[in-house]
Amino acid sequence: MMKKIMNDNLKEKTLKYILYKMRTEKEVRKFLQEKHGAAQEEVEDIIQYLYSYNYLDDEKYAEMFVRDKLRFSPVGRIKMSYELSNRGISSDVISNIVEEYLYLEKEVEIAKYLLEKKGKLADSTVKKQRYLYSRGFSNSAIARAVKLDENNYE
């Protein structure tokens, strides 16, 4: 009897946790195990419950994360993939989402926009490349964006 009450209590806390902000399965597992010391069986029951009501969906999470990231603080494919991976998103989902939202032309467009927004960056090609590299852009996107940016200032 006590186990059922504990389970409902944990379930309620978890629902509050994920309704506040969309979470990945990895984040929910960590929340249950580290913050509430939930047993493995309880964690699995709650995860299964959340999936059954579509409260957990790593693919939808990844899609929303990428769209928000591109809108508010754009980064390149490499950094985007890294950030999704750290949140526990599978590599298959990452490659599909990144390919859909950050294909090479889009990545070049974003990199070019960031360079324009940043200004001339002291006219240094190396500084431009370093800046884009630090934002996680691929080498091919960096090369194309820097070349396009330099053509704009000639």
Order of helices and strands: HHHHHHHHH
Helix content: over 70%
Low-confidence stretches: none
Overall pLDDT metric: 90
The rounded Rg comes to 21 Å
Classification by helices and strands: mainly alpha
- Between the first and last Cα atoms, what is the distance in angstroms? 76 Å
Report on the biggest sheet: none
Tell me the number of helical segments per DSSP (H or I, 4 or more residues long): 9
Per DSSP, what share of the residues sits in E-state strands of 2 or more residues?
under 5%
In total, how many beta strands?
Answer: 0
What would you call the shape?
elongated
Q: What can you tell me about this protein's structure?
A:
- This protein is mostly helical and 154 residues long.
- The protein has 9 helices and no strands.
- It has helices spanning 2-20, 25-36, 40-52, 58-72, 77-86, 91-101, 104-118, 125-134, 139-152.
- 24% of the residues are buried.
